[in-house]
Amino acid sequence: MKGKAALKTGGLIALWIVVALFLLFPFYYAVVSSFREGSAIFEASLWPANPTFANYEAVMTDQPFAKNILNSLIVAFSVVVLSLGLATFASYAFGRAKFKGRRLLLYTILGVSMFPQVAVLSGLFEIVRLFGLYNNLLSLVFSYMIFTLPFTVWVLTSFVRDLPVEIEEAAIMDGASSWTIVTKVFLPLLAPALVTTGLLAFIAAWNEFLFALSFTLTNEQRTVPVAIALISGASQYELPWGNIMAASVIVTVPLIVLVLFFQKKLVAGLTAGAVKG
Amino acid sequence: MTARSAIDKARARSAWIFVAPMLIVLALVAAWPLARTIWFSMTNATLVDLTTYDFIWFDNFIVHADGRWYGIFTDPQWLRALWNTLVFAAVSVSLELVLGVIVALIVNAALPGRGLMRAAMLVPWAIPTVVSAKIWQWMLNDQFGVVNAMLEGAGFIDGPVAWLGGSSLAMVSIIMVDVWKTTPFVALLVLAALQTLPKEIYEAAKVDGIHPVKVFFKVTLPLIKPALVVAVIFRLLDAMRMFDLVYVMTGSSEETMTLSVFARQALVSFQDVGYGSAASTGLFLIIALITVIYIMTLKPLGREKAA
């Protein structure tokens, strides 16, 4: 009996290792490739023979990649601040107040989160042109609201519902205004939820591709995903894979660190958005 | 007037003021552009000049002229894109669901290192889609790719395989990458559901000597079904609008082109806003239909609390 249990545990651990290898290998291989230069990159070996930083230097000097990273940071931070600001007040109303049309509104917002982005592309093109925002980062901050607002509102609303009502009611009885209640009472209580939703909004904005590809034109205005997708070599068949892998590692490592650091909160936020939503 | 109703009144008064800014932004970024896209789908507008165009009713969708049919519904490329999208969505979501449940069951075992395993599951999810597309494109490279090298080394293939070249293998590859990237996400959702299940049932089943496979189908599966339904819907809608993975890995190759890639190509590359908008509207209607079905299934699942 004991032998059987040990065998079962051994089998499970073997399965875990297989799954983990499958999940982690591609990124490991990207890291390995990014440290290989010249003809060494074409040897499909599993470790770098003579590691070099040449690809990292090349990707920063061949194109304005530092500017691309800055662009992505500016866009993602603005999107987070704007959507959290708008969603905090909305979620207070949705989570606490009973008003006509609340349920319909919430479902409409849920519907918006399922929009195919391409369905608003021509309409957004028109707005972006009208305000002269083509090839301007503001066009991205604006258009990203379509996918960050719905889920920040939904996730925050579900958090607001779970908060105790007593503190807030005491504040109302003391004659505090709704504004004071949201900013002084709710905001501190919501802080952990804001970190989670903010992080999810940040990741979504950092990764977005379709709008960034369509609303920017020049190298200097591109965000990271578009810059990486459009890295090109002398010809279509000579892509500088070393540079591409180096760029990929640069933008992914901070993201992985962030995700692993906030692991528990993120999973809670994701499941709140999906399971409760 | 009671204290409670006074509080409710105060809340209801401020509710609209608090909701309004968010609604205005959402109207500007979603409702208005969608309405304009639908409008443009009935015009012959071009990207060069969005202000001068003729209203041509449904000619972008379907029209009979000079003894021939025109419009997206008769366009072989659009129909191919529709087929590709449906195949991609159906196959990738089914695989992700089955593998997601299996991975969740494996990881749910109480062994040391479970935390590490969960961390590993978040890695593919954390990698930006464009980056995963590039990494896999490199790994699947026909001449220098590590996948061909490994398969050749193990004797599974004789010569290099053109994974992403213009054949049906390209779709298989793209589905594989999507499965790699998204299965962990499905598994995390299933894992969250598994952890809410009462342990007593499983102990009782063990005492009664019921086979674990039977326990899974008779007990576990029905209990995690609501979570699975939500996961499937979310994944399905995501898969139906697939753009970045396909665009980066195979460009506008006909073998893999999805509806989103088709619509953007017509709109931006060919500058045909009318035709591109018609293609977008078509995709929107398909997704709207799935969304309506989803929202209608929410209620029977006892999700009253959510609204």
Automatic annotation (TrEMBL), chain A:
Keywords from the UniProt entry: Cell membrane, Membrane, Transmembrane, Transmembrane helix, Transport
Membrane topology, from the record: Multi-pass membrane protein
Q: Where in the cell is it found?
A: Cell membrane
Which regions span the lipid bilayer?
12-31, 69-92, 104-125, 137-160, 181-206, 244-262
Q: Which GO terms describe its cellular component?
A: plasma membrane
- Which Gene3D superfamilies does UniProt cross-reference here? MetI-like
Specify one Pfam family.
BPD_transp_1
Q: Name one GO biological process term.
A: transmembrane transport
The record's principal subcellular location, in a coarse class, is: membrane
* Domain spans labelled ABC transmembrane type-1: 69-262
The UniProt entry's sequence similarity note says: Belongs to the binding-protein-dependent transport system permease family.
Question: In its UniProt entry, what is this protein called?
Answer: Trehalose/maltose ABC transporter permease
Query: What's the source species for this entry?
Result: Croceicoccus pelagius
Q: Which gene encodes it?
A: thuG
Automatic annotation (TrEMBL), chain B:
Tell me which UniProt keywords the record has, alphabetically.
Cell membrane, Membrane, Transmembrane, Transmembrane helix, Transport
Annotated GO biological processes are: transmembrane transport
Q: Which domain of life does the protein's organism represent?
A: Bacteria
Please tell me where this protein is predominantly located.
membrane
- Lipid bilayer topology: Multi-pass membrane protein
Q: Which segments cross the bilayer? A: 12-35, 86-107, 119-139, 169-194, 215-237, 273-295
Q: Which GO terms describe its cellular component?
A: plasma membrane
> According to its UniProt record, where is this protein located?
Cell membrane
Q: Name one Pfam family in it.
A: BPD_transp_1
| Gene3D superfamilies xref list | MetI-like (1.10.3720.10)
**Domain ABC transmembrane type-1, chain residue ranges per copy:** 82-296
What the entry lists under InterPro entries is as follows: MetI-like, MetI-like_sf
| Family to which this protein belongs | Belongs to the binding-protein-dependent transport system permease family.
Which protein are we looking at?
A: Sugar ABC transporter permease
Organism, scientific name: Croceicoccus pelagius
